[in-house]
Each structure stands twice: as C-alpha cells, then as structure tokens.
Amino acid sequence: MLFGYVRISTKTQNPGLQIDALLKEGVVEKNIYRDVSSGAKSERHDLDLMMSRLREGDTVIVWKLDRIARSISHLLKLVDEFEKLGVKFKSIKDPFIDTTSAHGKFVITLFGAIAQLERDIIIERTTAGLKSARRRGIQLGRKKGLNKIAKQKAILAASYYKENNLPIVDIMKLVGIKSKPTLYKYLAIQGRRNCKECGIIFWDERQNIEDAFCKKHKK
Fold it and tell me: Is residue 91 annotated as part of the catalytic site, yes or no?
C-alpha cells in the first residue's frame, strides 16, 4: 500500500502542490497524512499516526525530503525505522532517495557514512578543545552563580557572619537557609576563604576556593 506524507509550516501555506504530486504517484487521498508544523519541531501528530499504521511491503512517499525530515540524522533514523518495518521510502523531488532501488539504498548508506564522519569530527574537535582549555587553566562548565533571591540571602548571610559574629544556626534561621552546606556555599560565593597554609578564615572573592592563601602566606 502507498502512503503519503505532507507538511506545511503554517496554516496560511497551501499543501495543494504536495498533495497533487502524491496523488499523481498513485497515493489515494485517505492515505495522505498531513501536519502543520515548522521543520524544527519534533512533535508531528500525523507522522506518528502514519508510522503506527505502516505494514511490511508498504511504501512511504513524500514530495521533498525536508517535508518529513528535520536533518540528515532524522532522515537516517526514519529510514532505519522503515527498514525495520519492511517499508520502502521515496522522495519525488529527490529521486536519489528511493529505497525501492539499489542506487537509492546506496545513497542512504553514503548519507549514513557522512553523518558518522561529521559526528566523529565534532567529537574529535570537542575533545581537543577541552584538553587545550584545561592546559591553559580555563575553568570548564557552567559558571557558578545564584538567582536574585539566593544572592540576597548570600549577602545577608555574609553580613551577619562578618559583622554580627552570630552562631551559624542563628544565621540560618534569620536568612532562611535550611542546611549548613548551602550557607557555606553562599559565604564562599561572597568571598569566605580558608588559607591553605594556616587555615585562617579571610575574605577574598578573587581567590580560588580550593587554592586560597591569606596575606601572610600569599605567594
């Protein structure tokens, strides 16, 4: 059985050109599934519905590849699902994509190899970039920070800690902090440090927490 799939990006677009092309290929109108969705969106109701109704020996036809696939990787995933179901796939405007022919199968295999090569290159470049960044002492990952309310709590906690010399449990109650690790995290962000050499507590936001030194032992 022949199935057709049509996609338009907005309701103002006319799917008539795609539908006429599918009808010309022999797809009956009741077997044409249609979605209104941008190419970037993964949620496509009618595509999922069509996939659930496919059976071995069926053929899926589209007007152009970009009507059904969001990317090369998405195309390869769809083709892999078609193959598992025993379903053939072809594109009217892209005749080189036609798994009903040996040539079309070869092109799909070639696409797969290119996609894998692209993934390998990206991984290689990312790995090299991470190693280079580490060698230069660049801190990786998301920058540490607090939202507006947490920032206010951190400032208040540091003020109580430095100026009022209040016990930790009292500061937690006053500021509304539920755990000591959270309090010490807030104080650290505000600059609380322990000297690596003598252990004395001092304040310096510019120094690394794990490698901080007081004025006496600062190198």
Answer: no
